[in-house]
Amino acid sequence: MKKTVIITGAARGIGRACTELFAAHGYRVLINYHRSGAAAAELANSLQERGYRVALFQADVCSRPQVDQMVEYCQAELGPVDLLINNAGIAQSRLFIDLSVEDWETMIQTNLTGVFHCTQSVLRTMLPRQQGKIINIASMWGQVGASCEVHYSAAKAGVIGLTKALAKEIGPANIQVNCIAPGIIDTDMMVPFTIDEKAALKEQTPLERFGTAEEVAACALFLASEAANFITGQVIGVNGGFVV
Q1: CATH number, position 82
Q2: Model confidence over 27-53: pLDDT tens digits?
Q3: Catalytic pick from 27, 33, 52, 152?
Q4: pTM score, whole prediction
Q5: N or C: which end of the chain has fewer CB within 10 A?
Q6: Other CB atoms closer than 10 Å to residue 129's CB: what's the count?
C-alpha cells in the first residue's frame, strides 16, 4: 500500500533529495516550500512527468494556521499522513555578542517551533490511527555546538531533545520519532564558506569529504521503512565521522 509523506523545505538541498528518493520509492509526496516557489514547481513538474504522485503546498512552518491548512490539504489530495519529515530550516553565522533579538527569535521559530507546529498538527491524524513516523532533520552542531552559530546550535539541540522526549511519549501509540544529525553536507548552505574554510572542514572529517543530500535522504528512507519499526528516539549521525 502506498504511503503519504509531508516533507518540509522540500524544494532544495536535503528536502529535495528526500522528495526525489521517496517519490521514486512509491510514496505520495507533499512538497512543502515557503519562498522557493520556482524550484518547488520545477521539482513537482519533473516528478509528475515521470508518473510520480506529488502535490505542492506553500506554507511557513512558523505559522500554525498555515501548517494546519497544509496537513488538511495533504489529506484531501494524497491521503492520511503516514510520515512527516521536518526538514525546513535556516542557518546563520554570527558572533553571539552580535546576535540581535530578531536573529535569535527567527532561528528558534523556524528551526524549532516549526518542528513543533508540523509535528503536533500531523499527530492529530496519526494518533487516532495508532501509526505513523516522524523524522526530524537536526545537525551535528545540535550535539556538540558550533562557534558563531550559537542560536543555530541551540535550535537544533532543541530538535534533538524534542525527538527523544516525544518518542517516549507516543511510543505506546506505535509512532516512531527519530532524528538525523547531518554533518557537513554539500548544499546551498555551504555557499558562504571560503575555499580555505571548506578545506579545513574536510580535514576535520575522517572520511575527508562532504556528505551529499542524497546520503541523508537514504538514511531517512531507512528510518521510514518497516526495517526501522523498532527504532525510536534515536539520533543518527550522517557526518563522515566528524562527531563520534
Answers
A1: 3.40.50.720
A2: 999 999 999 999 999 999 999 999 999
A3: 152
A4: 0.97
A5: N
A6: 13
